[in-house]
Amino acid sequence: MPLLNASRPSPETFLLMGIPGLEHLHGWIGIPFCSMYVVAVVGNVTILAVVRAERSLHEPMFLFLCMLSVTDLVLSTSTLPRMLCIFWFDAHNILFDACLTQMFFIHSFTTMESGFFLAMAIDRYVAICHPLRHTTILTYKCITLMGIVVGIRGVAFFTPHPILLKQLPYCRTRIIAHTYCEFMAVVKLACVDTGPTKSYSLSVASIIGSCDAILIALSYVFILRSVFRLPSQDARFKALGTCGSHVCVILVFYSTAGFSIFTHRFGKNIPAHIHIFIANMYLLVPPFLNPIVYGVRTQKIRQFVLRTLTIKLS
């Protein structure tokens, strides 16, 4: 059904446009998006299965990695299938309640992703800067508590979002110029003053994101300082290689998420298709890259997978 013929949807639905200005490329854009989703699902499920099966991997780093994998699976599954329906089947309609549910999962689990990046950075800091105290500091109780705090933080700060949107009247167009239900894209459709509501959302996202990013940066500064004090050049290169790949994933996540947040606040002149395309990146790229960076490049996980495959093929 062409989008122009459905410009007046029923009150119970919204219309997701996809990427405005690039509608003629939707079919092609869906191919790499789908490929990234398949890699994300297979990679993250593999990590969860490997860590569950191999007791030697029940260490803080891998337990945090499992939490990150679950977050990635929820985040990518809450967005990618719906995007592909838009790109390939022109299925633009989405129920209002489904829209609010998707929005809650996106914002809360994006916050959890940020929190687990911070937890993993703390683990690396303790492991490298205080190796003798690693097991006594990051006990199973501490790891569980950190995971619970990250989860509660994501849910608590973003539960008000769908509740606030549910109360607003929508007398304007119900067309959302986006590929998914984002808070700022939906709140713009309300026909009342939403200044305080927008400020709350931007403030929460900015404060949480900036605090996590600053703490992660500090942890890696201390890590690098310790690495450069190592007597062996091989050990320094090995530690830098591991930290470098982790930092690249974190930079992709925070740079694209930050761009999206500040575009809502200051980037009025940025073309919509650029803003939306980059907004998709911070939801798609980390779930795609995390299994590669944290899984394939991790020797213990790689060896377990290869050993399992060798046994099954022999």
UniProtKB/TrEMBL annotation:
GO molecular function: G protein-coupled receptor activity; olfactory receptor activity
Xref: PROSITE patterns: G_PROTEIN_RECEP_F1_2
GO CC, alphabetical: plasma membrane
Gene3D superfamilies named in the record: Rhodopsin 7-helix transmembrane proteins
Pfam families: 7tm_4 (PF13853)
UniProt xrefs under CDD domains: 7tmA_OR52R_52L-like (cd15951)
Membrane topology field: Multi-pass membrane protein
Annotated SUPFAM superfamilies: Family A G protein-coupled receptor-like
Annotated compartments: Membrane
Coiled coil: none
Entry superkingdom: Eukaryota
Residues spanning the membrane: 25-50, 62-89, 104-126, 138-158, 204-227, 239-262, 274-296
Keywords for the protein's UniProt record, in alphabetical order: G-protein coupled receptor, Membrane, Olfaction, Receptor, Sensory transduction, Transducer, Transmembrane, Transmembrane helix
Keyword Transmembrane helix among UniProt keywords: yes
Domain G-protein coupled receptors family 1 profile: 43-294
PANTHER family, sorted: OLFACTORY RECEPTOR 56B1-RELATED (PTHR26450), OLFACTORY RECEPTOR FAMILY 52 SUBFAMILY X MEMBER 3 (PTHR26450:SF39)
Protein role: Putative odorant or sperm cell receptor. Odorant receptor.
Name the record gives this protein: Olfactory receptor 52M1-like
Originating organism: Erinaceus europaeus
